[in-house]
Amino acid sequence: MADKIQWAGNTMPKSDDKHLGIMSLDHVKKARAFHQSFPQYTVTPLARLDGQAARLGLSNLCVKDESYRFGLNAFKVLGGSFAMANYIADETGKDVAECTFDYLTSDQLAKDFGQATFFTATDGNHGRGVAWAANKLGQKAVVHMPKGSTKPRFDNIAAEGATVTIEEVNYDECVRMAAAEADACERGVIVQDTAWEGYEKIPSWIMEGYGTMASEAAEQLREMAINRPTHVFVQAGVGSLAGAVVGYFTNLYPDNPPTFVVVECAPAACLYKGAAACLYKGAAAGDGDPRIVDGDMPSIMAGLCCGEPNILGWDILRNHTTAFVSCPDWVTARGMRTLGAPEKGDPRVISGESGAVTTGLVETLMLDPEYAELKELIGLDKTSYVLCFSTEGDTDPDQYRRIVWEGEYPTC
Asked: pLDDT under 50 in the chain at which residues?
C-alpha cells in the first residue's frame, strides 16, 4: 500500500508579519527588470490545462512551466542571480537597478568590483543557477551537493565552470560546509536561500528574485481573463520559494488573497520514524515554530529534501497559508505522468520530480475521497481557479524516463 499524504490546517498564532514586505510589488518589479536585462530572458509558458480541469471538476488549472528558464531547465537561477547582483551593487555603492547584465559583464565591473567566489549548497538546480550566473558575470563558484545527488545534475553544474563536489552528508550539512568555506575565503560569499539569525539579507534577495516567476504568472493569468487565482499550490524545501510566492500574491491581492497550500516531500525514512517535512511538522504542532528534520532524506524530490527552514519564508507562511501538506514520492510521480501525457488539446509540460508534486496533489485531492477533508478545508471545487508551479523540467533525464515511461513509484 502506498504511503499516505499527511496534512495540517493552519491553526498557528499569527506573528507581526514583519517579513511580508520582502515581497513587495516594488521589490519584485525591480527583480524582474534585472532579469529582463539578460539577453537570455523570456517569459516562461503558463500552461492552461482546460482538459485536465474539466476531468478533475475544476473551473481552471494553470501550471507555470519553468523548464524553459534561461535554458537551465529550472527556476532557481532567478534567485541566485538577483542576489549576486544585489551583493555587487552593495559592494560598489550602486543601486541594483544600475547592475544590469551589460554592466555586470563589462570591463568596468572588473575595475569596480573585481572577482569574488560564491559558495552554495544544492541538490542541483540552485547550484547550477549560481554557477551559470557566476560564469556569465566573470565570477567564481564553489558548489557542494548532498549525498545521493545524481551525476547528470553534477555534470550540469561542472559544465558552468564551477568547482563542484558531492559530499557524504545531507543538504543542511552541505549548507554549513559552504558557509564555513565562504567565511574562510578572502572574498567568499555564501549564496543560500536558507536564512538564519544573522544571515538574512542574501536570502531575502533570493526570494525577491523568485518573485519574477510569480509576477509573470499573475500577468499571464490576466491575459487569460483570469483576474486572480482562487488557489495557489506551491512546493517548499526550506520555504524560500513558498514564502516568495505566498508573499507576492498576498501583496498583489491584499483584500482578497488566494487560498495558499504549501507542499513538501515526505522522505520515506522520515515517515517510518514518525517524522516528516519541517514546515508541515511545525504546522501540525500549531505553536508557530517550524521543526528541524535531521538525517538522510531519501526522496526523488531532491530539491525539497531540506530539514531546516528559511526563517523569513516561514514567517510569511505561518501568517498566510491555509494548509501544509507532506507528500510521498508517488504523488509527484503521478503529477509527472499526468503533465507528460496530457488530456487532448492541453499542452504538454515536462515536469521533474520536484516540479510536479503540486499538480499531483491537486489531481489526488479531486479524485481520491480519502482526502475529502483536506479538499473541503481549502475549498477546492468546481468554482476553483488553480495555479501550480512546475519548478523544474527533466533535470535528471534518466530518472524522468524511469518514472514517466517505466512506471516507477506507482500511484496505487
From this structure: 1, 268-276
With 0-12 / 13-18 / 19 or more C-beta atoms within 10 angstroms meaning exposed / middle / buried, residue 112 is middle
Q: Where are the beta strands (DSSP E) in 239-354?
A: 259-265, 323-327
The neighbouring-strand residues paired with 323 are 9, 261
Annotated active-site residue in 3, 65, 95, 123: 123
* 346 catalytic residue (yes or no): no
123 is catalytic: yes
Q: What is the pLDDT of residues 293-329, one digit of tens each?
A: 665 567 788 667 666 788 999 999 999 999 999 999 9
**Structural contact between residues 131 and 161, judged by C-beta atoms closer than 8 angstroms:** yes
Beta carbons of 349 and 63 less than 8 angstroms apart: yes
Predicted structure pTM score: 0.94
Exactly one of 64, 65, 76, 396 is catalytic; which is it?
76
List helix spans (H) across 289-356: 311-320, 329-340
All 3 cell numbers of residue 299? 526522496
